[in-house]
Design a protein that fits this description.
Blueprint lengths: L14 H11 L10 E11 L7 E12 L3 E4 L2 E8 L3 E10 L10 H6 L13 E12 L2 E10 L7 E8 L2 E3 L2 E12 L1 H8 L3 H5 L10 E14 L3 E11 L2 H4 L10 E12 L1
Organism: Stenotrophomonas oahuensis
Protein name: MipA/OmpV family protein
Keywords: Cell outer membrane, Membrane, Signal
Length: 266
């Protein structure tokens, strides 16, 4: 299956953070990352939804790093506090979670006791919230709190991630670990069955709030003066509340995502 999206950077570090680390590691700390970045990338995700399989998502890469306003793929933000060690921003972020029923497996859903014809799509959404980032010799700690303002799920999400970058050859390698909490409304919408579906005869399943830990690694490498390569790999360990859902593939314990992109700075 293929979907064409705007950049998916919910996993790993943001463009301008990774670029900044790479620039410092390349002896260009004073200059910093370029204001504009354009390029191409692709994300491959092993979907946990029943029968959906692997999502392959090519997309254009777009980033902008202004004095206060910035764009990082799916996220736009306004930095109201910025220093060498701490940033705080108000952010708007597109949520690409969910599924189209037509992309799920009819046989796999039937094995879970669900008739696909009784299901509804789980819509994408727009989240608003705040993002806080601490940086120093200890690495980087990032906290983000979001709320769905389009009322797709009407829920909230909070995430915490820690990463420590170091030079690896001509590039910057940053292992990271984190955890994401989703409220009851969000967990029930994306991993449970809806009231209208239950009224049609679908299994009544509501996981409530869910907590999902993840581990990953990001990589950035300059390619000459203008171009750069970046990528990440991440594995989410799904809790029983999610894997017990009839919407999820049987014997699924987690979900892996890999990203690779090339960008030119301006």
């Amino acid at each position: 299956m293929k979907k064409f999206l705007w950049p998916v950077l919910a996993c790993g570090l943001s463009f301008h953070v990774v670029a900044q680390e790479g620039a410092e590691g390349n002896g260009q700390g004073e200059q910093g990352p370029p204001r504009w970045g354009l390029g191409l990338g692709a994300v491959v995700t092993d979907s946990a939804y029943a029968g959906e399989g692997t999502r392959v998502m090519p997309f254009p890469l777009v980033s902008y790093n202004g004095d206060h306003f910035y764009v990082e793929g799916l996220t736009a933000g306004w930095k109201f506090i910025e220093s060498n060690n701490f940033n705080a921003a108000v952010v708007a972020k597109a949520r690409m979670d969910g599924f189209d029923v037509k992309d799920l497996g009819r046989r796999e859903l039937a094995e879970n006791g669900i008739d696909y014809r009784l299901l509804e799509d789980r819509d994408k959404a727009l989240d608003l919230g705040t993002k806080l980032v601490w940086r120093g010799g200890f690495g980087e700690l990032e906290f983000e709190a979001l709320a769905d303002v389009t009322d797709a799920s009407g829920g909230q999400e909070a995430s915490l991630q820690y990463g420590y970058g170091f030079k690896a050859g001509k590039g910057q390698l940053t292992p990271n670990v984190g955890v994401t909490w989703q409220s009851k409304d969000m967990g029930n919408y994306y991993y449970g069955t809806l009231k209208e579906e239950v009224a049609r005869g679908v299994i009544d399943y509501r996981p409530g709030s869910v907590t999902v830990p993840h581990v990953g690694v990001s990589y950035f490498r300059p390619l000459g003066e203008k171009w750069s390569m970046m990528g990440f790999a991440q594995y989410k360990l799904l809790p029983d509340k999610i894997t017990d859902s009839p919407l999820i593939e049987r014997d699924t314990d987690g979900s892996a995502t890999v990203f690779l992109g090339f960008m030119r700075g301006f």
